[in-house]
Amino acid sequence: MDMEAAIQGGKHNMLNKFKICISMKTLMVLFNCILLAIGQVGGPLLVRIYFLHGGKRKWLTAWLLTAGFPLLILPISISYFKNRSKASSPKFLVPPRLVAASAFLGFLLGIDSYLYTFGMSYLPVSVSSLLGSSQLAFTAIFAYFVVKHKFTHYSINAVVLMTFGSAILGLHMNGDRPSGESNANYTLGFFMTLGAAALHGFIMPAFEYAQKKAEVTVTFDLFLQVQFLVSMFATLFCTIPMIINKDFQAIPQEAAEFELGPMKYYTILVMAGIALQCMMIGSTGVIFSSSSLFGGIVTSLLVPVQQIFAVFCLAESFSGEKGMALAMCLWGFASYFYGEYKVNQKQPDVKHEPEHEEV
Question: pTM score, two decimals?
Fold first, then answer.
C-alpha cells in the first residue's frame, strides 16, 4: 500500500513539474511573440517614415536594425548578479562553437539588414510585406533540409494558406507605387526585398541548427547572450560601410534638412533602433523557445497587421486583396496553433511512460 502511494505521489510530482515546464515555455514563447510583434510592426513604419521625409542613408537604417543590442546588457547584468552567488553557475554560458556560429549568423544578418532596408527605401510598407509572405516559404524549405523539421497536415495547411494569402498583397503592388519612383529603383527594391526574405528564411533554421549542434540546454541567459553576440557582429558589419560612406558625419546635416525637423529625426532613429531590436530579440527568442517554422508562421501572421497600421499611420490604401490576405493569414495561424495544441496534448503520455517503468 505504501509502495503504491509512493508511486502515485512520484507520478503526481513529475506531472506537476512537467506542467510547470510547459507553462514557463508557453510564457517564454508568448513574451517573444509580443516583442516580435512590436518590432515587426513598428520598426518598418518608422524606417519608412525616415525615407519618406528626406532620409537617404540605407546603411544607417540597416545599422539600426541591430544597433540596439547594448540594451541587452541590462537584463544580462541583472541575471549575472542574481546568479553570481552560485559557485556552479558559469559566468559566460555560450560555448566557443556557438560563439563562432553567432559571428557567422551576425555577418549574414548584416547583409540581410541592408537588403531589407534597401527595399524599404523604394517600396511602401504594403509591398515590402512580401518579405513576410515569401520568408515563410523559404523558412519552411530550409527548416526541412537544415533541421529536419517534420511537417504535419496542420503546418502544411498553414504554410500554404499564409504564403498565398500574403502573396496576394504582391498582386496589388502596382496600385501602391510611390509617385515619382522610377521603374528601375522600384524593381530593384522589389527584388532586394525578395532576396532579404530568402536570406532571412535561411538564417532562422540556421539559428536552430547552431543551438542543436552546440548541445547546450536553452536557458533565458543563454538566449540573451547569443542574441547579444549576433546583433553585435551584425552591427560591426554594418559599421564598416558606414565609416567608408561617412554616414556618421552626415547625420547632423541630414537632421537639419529633415522635413519633420531635427528633433523628430533623432526621435525616429532612436525609436526605430529600439523597435527593430525588439524584433530581433523576439525573432531569435521564438526560435530558441519553439522552432524556426513557428517563427516564420508568426512573422507571416504579422504581415497583414502591418497593412492595417500602414493605412492609419502612412495613409496607404487597404484594398479587398489586403482584407483577403488578412483572413487567410489568420486562418493559417489558427491551423498551425491547433496542430501544435494537438501535439502537446499527446506529449505527457509519451514522456511519462519510461518514468513509470523506472519506478
Answer: 0.76
